[in-house]
Amino acid sequence: MSTIPYGPQTNFSIFEDTMAEMTWQEVEAAARRGAAVLLPVGIVEAHGPHMDLTPDFYISAIYCRYLRQELCTLGCEAIIAPTVYWGVSEALAKYPGTFSVRPETMRRLLCDVLDSLARWGFRNVFIFNAHGDPVHMDTIREAAGISSRDDFRAFCLFDLESFPVEDEVPLPPMREDGYQPDYHAGAVETSQVNAFFPEKVRRELARTLPPSATFDPLAYCGDPENFESEINVAEICSVDVRNDARRIRKLLSCDLTGIISRVQRMEGIFDALSDAFSRNPDSVKTDPGLQEQLRVLCAYYDGGQWMADYACDEQGMLPRDLKRGVLSEDGVYNLLCDIEQAARE
């Protein structure tokens, strides 16, 4: 594995240090060792008149390179799958050079890629996506969900921000006075591409482009002329990588049996409190046994463990037939609010 610095790259290839440069025996051996797989996803898409069509899949590819490096320092082996750059772009499909495929085509492609990895013996795949189209992102989620099963899990890194880690690093300061909206090929994305692949940014042209609140007429939405005003671009990337690596390490070390057991226990407490409260709202404040169950449920919900279990469930880690009303987004919150309101009356 070659090490790359945070900053401008030279002679960067999206295939370097990926499975594409390994022999089949090396891939097989990595699966047997329990290596995780990082799967970069992007799209070939128009990015204004000041950048070429590669930003999304180049950013995805380099992020996975950084992530693999960070995981290595944590003692977690990972290999990188070749970048998937066929995606969905509903807003920019009309611009020449934007290869937008149908959602069902992308879903089937990703499912085939994930099924191949599972067939070779890999058990954990982490998908990094650098393209923000909502349908594109939903399609990735669907493919991950379809392909995941008891012995194989596909995780979407963009849905893992709620998964807590004890040593999470706060992001460095970001520019606060930027033009909004800045969704696509604006100041933020242009500054990111310039930070890592400066040869891909036509800087003189970018400095002449006025802010645009829509993608039309030049295939950008944002403020590219002020891309040089963005701050801490590489540093923000490095912190994101560090935090994602620690989330992955925690997920890889998760005791699923323990999680399932805890959810089942909390589900029983949640059901008991809900049933008692529905029959007699005063019972919770007068019954010592119910008060103890309430204390346990509050500690679970407020202490961060509920959020961790919820994130595991969102990533499809828990059995589909597991009863899990306690993990509904509003269930516990509404019950606790109702009990608190009844206690004040």
Give an account of the 3D structure:
The chain has helices spanning 24-32, 55-73, 103-119, 134-147, 187-196, 203-206, 233-252, 256-279, 283-286, 288-302, 305-314, 331-344, and strands spanning 36-41, 78-80, 124-129, 153-156. It is mainly alpha-helical. A four-stranded parallel beta sheet has the order 2-1-3-4, sandwiched between helices. Helix 4 (134-147) links the parallel strand 3 and strand 4 (153-156). Helix 3 (103-119) packs parallel to helix 4 (134-147) and helix 8 (256-279) crosses helix 10. It starts with 23 loop residues before the first helix and ends with a helix. 38% of the residues are buried.
> What's the pLDDT, averaged over the residues?
93
Secondary-structure-based class equals mainly alpha
Number of beta strands: 4
pLDDT < 50 runs, ≥5 residues: none
Radius of gyration: 23 Å
Number of helices: 12
> In which order are the strands of the major sheet placed?
2-1-3-4
Distance between the termini: 64 Å
Largest sheet data: 4 strands, parallel
Secondary-structure element order, N to C? HEHEHEHEHHHHHHHH
